Amino acid sequence: MALQIEQPTTDEIIVCRDVHKWFGELHVLKGINLTVQAGEVVVIFGASGSGKSTFIRTINRLEEHQKGQIIVDGIELTHDVRNVVAVRSEIGMVFQSFNLFPHLTVLQNITLAPMRVRRWPREQAEEVAVALLERVGIPEQAHKFPAQLSGGQQQRVAIARALAMQPKIMLFDEPTSALDPEMISEVLDVMRELAGTGMTMLVVTHEMGFARAVANRMVFFDQGLIVEEGPPARIFEAPTEERTRQFLSQILH
Amino acid sequence: MTSATLQPPHVRVGPIAWLRVNLFSTWYNAILSLLIGALLAWVILQFSGWAVGAARWDVITRNMRLFLIGQFPGDQAWRIWLNLAVISGLAGLSGGSAGGAVRTLATSVAAAQLLFAGLIAVSGIGLLGSVAYLANAALVWVGLVGGMRRLVPQRVVTIGWLVSLPASFILVAGVGDTAIPSVSTNLWSGLLLTFLLATVGIVLSFPFGVVLALGRRSALPAVRWLSTAYIELIRGVPLVTILFMADIMLPLFLPGELRIDRVARAMGGITLFSAAYVAENVRGGLQAIPAGQVEAAHALGLNGFLTNRFIVLPQALRAVIPANVGLFISLLKDTTLVTIVGLLELLGIGRSVLAQSESLGAQMEVYVFVAALFFVMSFAMSQASYRLEASLGVGER
User: Fold this and answer.
1) How far is CA A210 from the centre of its chain?
2) ipTM for the complex?
3) CB–CB contact A99 B314 (8 Å)
4) Which of A99, A117, A141, A154 would best serve as a mutation to test chain B binding (most B beta carbons within 10 A)?
5) Distance between CA B384 and CA A145 in Å, rounded?
6) Does residue A23 sit at the B interface (CB-CB below 8 Å)?
7) Which of A37, A153, A199, B120 has CB atoms 3.0–4.6 Å from B130's, for a disulfide?
8) Nearest-neighbour CA in chain B from A162: distance (Å)
9) Calpha distance A207→A185 (Å, rounded)
């Protein structure tokens, strides 16, 4: 069976229905239902261990869900490797710990996937990479190795690397949690600019200022379930759930 | 790299200050230094006194041809020279264009040939060999210059190496009744055989070992079990046993008309043995790669093969260079074990030279010479590995 194409209704780009995930005996996702429209910026927040990182990792199948359905841009994630590859090439991901390739220069980090997966010629890949480095504000670092950059610069390279594959969706897994405070804003600025271009973004973060300014919707995770979701204004001003209120009061002093 | 950077301050320590700090810091350090210094001086004096005065180096010079190419027919020796010339040229070119470790190796190739040129000049073989070695060293130098000026494209050099390995094997082995008549492997001996065994062992066991290491971490149970079983089996058996098996047992299992050459069997044994150890070294490197690297590669859409080829293996293999070079140095020295299946590599030739009546009592000379040759080869390898680590260390965490 080739790619399973489901007719997409309107422009729902990610559809998750009753997603469950166990790590051994531990039930970490207990039935997640979430639909994301193309161009939407969704901020996912919640206590550590609530399953929020695991959830966004199931969307590009870095984690396998054991029950339920995940459909990305009309392609369902199943054991069919071709579906997984097809979905991954449409999704960019940015990690908490950057995960740049330390043996490659910044430029090589960015051009690797376009050249090897998309089979672009080197000139084209490098042209795109240089343009992306301009966009994230560090064109002069192209020939350095990741270890020679600051944390904020590394994370911006990681964003450029993900964007080089021209994804339709970007996943951010706590992109600023490993950064020194003075570097957080340079990464958030890039993400804000990206959101302005209409990119579909799922962002796991505790940066509530970013959420308030950029998110279309906020989703609160607790103990493997979505407890509450809604536009930032309502979540901040009038959360309906006690747990949401408690969590927000802990992180917003 | 664009902004101006300052060199770190350079503190020069004079020899006397160095002595005071390192050797004579306290009274008991001073006594220890003097005692050990005296012991060293005594050993060196004794040895050099023997080497210059009592030693009968004519055993070496008289048998130089035996040590180098063993019983390889003299009128076919040009084939070895041709081989050496090709290797010299290629080594020079690679060293010139690559720099770092490869250049160190190329320089050692040239230095070793200069050494042989000198040795032969004082031996009875005649000046022709000396001139040939000098020419070879010059060829390395020409290659170095050519490589540095990028006169030959890197790709051509790489193809040259790939072609030269089987080509030199054919050149040494020969083909039937042609211009290069086949030379029975019984006649391959001396340094030539040591080189062939070590080179083939290293070149073949490395990729095989990498495949085994990947196999041992494979998601497919059958592949994983087979690789693990192979590695554990081979590591549980001494090399001598494997060489015996290859030499005596293998012909018993094979049909009579199928005969595998003795040298080829020894090469196979060494390769199979070494591969298991390479695999375990490489596995150590693979385990050191953080899971995030693989996740990032997968998230970018790289499949398993591309992830291994471009992300995991380059980092893992770099991390295990010191361990692997150590392994290859011991492989080089372990080639001496083929003596027990009747092959005469460098050490074996040394023994047979000692069996000559005119070489009676020259054990010291022969063994010192053989040891020196092994030392030069091993030292060149370890120096090259240090350079390799240093040049690949760029950008490491």
Assistant:
1) 15
2) 0.91
3) no
4) A99
5) 24
6) no
7) B120
8) 7
9) 10
**DSSP codes joined into one string, B190-234:** HHHHHHHHHHHHHHHHHHHHHHHHHHHT-SSHHHHHHHHHHHHHH
Does residue A5 sit at the B interface (CB-CB below 8 Å)? no
Q: Judge whether A252 and A212 are in contact, CB under 8 Å.
A: no
pLDDT digits (tens, 9 = 90+) for B200-253: 899 899 999 999 999 999 889 999 999 999 999 999 999 999 998 888 877 777
How does DSSP classify residue A140? Answer: G
- What are the pLDDT tens digits along chain A (253 aa)? 445 555 544 689 999 999 999 999 999 999 999 999 999 999 999 998 899 999 999 999 999 999 999 999 989 998 888 888 889 989 999 999 999 999 999 999 999 999 999 999 999 999 999 999 999 999 999 999 999 999 999 999 999 999 999 999 999 999 999 999 889 999 999 999 999 999 999 999 999 999 999 999 999 999 999 999 999 999 999 999 999 999 999 887 6
> B397–A92: do the CB atoms touch at under 8 Å?
no
C-alpha span between B239 and B348 (Å, rounded): 17
Q: What is the pTM of this model?
A: 0.81
Complete domains list, chain B, with CATH: 74-182 (no CATH), 184-397 (1.10.3720.10)
Tokens 């030539």 sit on residue: B192
**Nearest-Cα residue of chain A relative to residue B392:** A103
- Is A87 exposed, middle or buried, given 0-12, 13-18 or 19+ CB atoms closer than 10 A? buried
